[in-house]
Amino acid sequence: MKYIDYKDLKKISKICFGTLALSNLQNNEDFVNKVNVLNYAYENGINFYDTAELYDNYDIIGSFLKNKKRDSLYIATKSYAYNKETAKYSIEKALNELNTDYIDIFMLHEQDNGNNFLGHYEAVEEFMKYKEKGIIKKFGISTHTIQAVTDSIKFNEIDVVFTIVNSTGIGINDGTNLQMIEAVEKAKSNGKFIMAMKPYGGGHLLSDTKIAFNFVNKIEAVDTIAIGMKSKAEIDTNICYLENKEVSNDIKSQVKNINRKLNIAYWCIGCGKCVEKCKQQALSLIDGKCCVNMEKCVLCSYCASECDSFCIKIV
Ligand code: SF4
Ligand code: SF4
Q1: Residue 192 · residue 161 · CB < 8 Å
Q2: Whether the CB of 303 sits within 6 Å of ligand 1
Q3: 42 in the same domain as 183
Q4: Which of 91, 127, 211, 296 is the most exposed place for a label (fewest CB within 10 A)?
């Protein structure tokens, strides 16, 4: 494993475990199996875990944390808090359900640009109070836009920028992969810690994951690569890529052909809330029912949380 230092956060693993893949939004495995997958990652040197209030999986991570030395790993999470009360709620919920006294990185989820950030500024001020008390170690944003990465430079409050970086640019809402890399490099040179998400394009780049991984891994400005993983074989594969080792045929056979897709249940009432939420324009209403264009979907699960009828699931 390769490790990175960021200011007073020392030895953060280059691979960050993206736990959306273990949430009930995307994974039907039982609780114990999910905790075991996290334990396997930890035993193999991955010490950085990303979650979110949206993923509704704090219980899994809380259970995983129980028998660990807290300072042997890093937890990042995020929420849509927009004022003092929602910021407080997000922090208290994360602390209680994750069984921890502090959060290493807390982020505002899905920020589009600087104005969006300013719109959440009451929450940001509250988060800064938690940071002063040491309850949040670093603060940041997650985003799918180049604009937000560029605008992050204007805000000293933002330590961490978590954005989409992949070889084709799929999932980036406002430009190309090269424009994103340029923005990331500028943010990095302005002192931001860069977390890259979706190196496999939300499932679109699975035909050659090694090439897709290496593309992101070679970008010097990227500090850590967040990868959604569901199995020990996927963990082994990504570690092999990082360490430039051959992946055994046995491991290859366990991970190949696991293509995920977004399912919309037949009881969809066609309210359109999910369609509005999807910035990839992957959803549309046809004959009063929601339909997905998998060519555009990056499996982010944002739409699933909008559906009051629980129709959307990634399988
Ligand atoms: S359809 Fe849903 S999961 Fe797919 S990109 Fe849109 S919001 Fe994300
Ligand atoms: S939010 Fe749910 S019910 Fe509404 S259109 Fe989307 S899938 Fe259908």
Answers
A1: yes
A2: yes
A3: yes
A4: 211
- Whole-number Å distance, alpha carbon 294 to ligand 2 midpoint, is 16
What distance in Å separates the CA atoms of residue 8 and residue 249, rounded to the nearest whole number? 40
Beta strands in 92-143 (DSSP E): 103-108, 136-143
Ligand 2 pocket, 270 CB below 6 A? yes
Pair 93, 156 in one domain: yes
In angstroms, what is the span from residue 85 Cα to ligand 1's centroid? 28
Read off the pLDDT of residues 59-115 as tens digits, 9 standing for 90 and up.
Answer: 999 999 999 999 999 999 999 999 999 999 999 999 999 999 999 999 999 999 999
What confidence tens digit (pLDDT) does each residue in 21-64 have? 998 888 888 999 999 999 999 999 999 999 999 999 999 999 99
Q: How many structural domains is the chain composed of? A: 2
**Residue 312 half-sphere exposure, CB side, CA atoms within 13 Å?**
26
Assess whether the C-beta atom of 136 lies below 6 angstroms from ligand 2.
Answer: no
